[in-house]
Amino acid sequence: MLPYFCLLFISIILPMLTYKPIDTFFDCGARALAQKRNKITLRLFFCGFFALLAMRDLTVGSDLFEYRNLFELCQATSFDNLIKMKWEVGYTIYNKIVSIFSHSYRVFLMISAIVILIPIYKLYSKEEDYSYLAILLFINMPCFLMIFSGIRQAIAMSIGIVAYIFLEKRKYILSGIMVFVAVLFHTSAFVLVLIYPAFFVKIKTKHLIFIATTIVAIYIWRVPLLQFLIQKMPSRYIESYSEIQSTGAVGMMILFLMFLAFSFIIQDENAMSKRDFFMRNMLLIATVFQIFVPIHGLIQRASYYFIVFTPVSILRVVQTPKKNMKSISEIAVFVMSFFFFTYFFYNAYFSTDNLLNVFPYKFCWSVR
């Protein structure tokens, strides 16, 4: 657990302890200083996160051995035959291209870490405040663990972020192309089409009764709804995922319902930008997906594309509070920071859930 603690110490605690030297070094206004602190915190975190991904042992991440076998298989396969493999063609071509430059699986992991982390950093770095809270929220999201193990889907998730960045810049064709490319890496990325209604539709407090009613209805009829959706999937997925059974993952569902309620109670819609509405819509979509997760683990995979936006969603809430909610918002930042810092290590030490073998961390030179 020491590497994870060092990651948080170097990226969050250490910058806080050195704010005065930083302020002295940068001769600029208070607002600019806050932004520089924010950038430093994020850069330290993502550089440290890259180091952990690059130097991890193959046991840190439950699928890494399987991905190594696929990498070696793609090396020995011609481009013409890549399309015949059972894996998504985008991912097999990616493996083949990397293997042209290096046959080392370790180099492949390093390049993949860069591909995955840069879009996430770009997304989070647009926020000017509370970078430490974004980090603490992120490391407690399921997508953080998935990045260690599910290389294929982690890349698709990051490509989805690129699709949003293009969408935000009104480059709609490029955004659509990125969604298509994401699907070529992981079939579940087709759910990224939901970013378009999330971007163009403004859901406000006046729609809250309808939203609440819909969420309750989905919860009540989630089993038949999920059965219907599974039957519409390709046959190879029906064979593998047709069984619906309890996963016990209720905690994350409750957390996202609390996040959603918090956003509608705290946020001042008169001060919200288009980005704010989009982020809250993404939080709503992630919450709906979490309603299904306790009855089928497959849905968690589809939710990663929206969960990765959750830290930004919460940051937008605490930065645009109603005037009479400002003090509550500031308290919430403190409470969430303390809770998620503590919970991360508690969960790592004591959880009996499947955490994809991410804990404890082992370096690649460790003796197995």
Give the strand tally.
0
For the terminal residues, how far apart are their CA atoms? 16 Å
- Fraction of residues in β-strands: under 5%
User: What proportion of the residues is helical, as a percent range?
Assistant: over 70%
The poorly predicted ranges are none
Helices and strands, in N-to-C order? HHHHHHHHHHHHHHHHHHHH
Q: Largest sheet, if any?
A: none
Shape call: globular
Secondary-structure-derived class: mainly alpha
The count of helical stretches stands at 20
Overall mean pLDDT stands at 88
- In angstroms, what is the radius of gyration? 21 Å
Topology:
Layout: H1 2-17, H2 19-25, H3 30-55, H4 64-75, H5 79-82, H6 89-101, H7 105-125, H8 131-139, H9 142-149, H10 151-168, H11 172-185, H12 195-200, H13 208-220, H14 222-231, H15 235-241, H16 251-266, H17 274-292, H18 298-307, H19 310-319, H20 326-350
Helix pairs in contact: 1-3, 3-7, 4-6, 6-11, 7-10, 8-19, 8-20, 9-10, 10-11, 16-17, 16-19, 17-18, 17-19
Give a written overview of the molecule.
With 368 residues, the protein is mainly α. The protein contains 20 helices and no strands. Helix 1 packs antiparallel against helix 3, helix 8 runs antiparallel to helix 19 and helix 10 packs antiparallel against helix 11. The two termini are 16 Å apart.
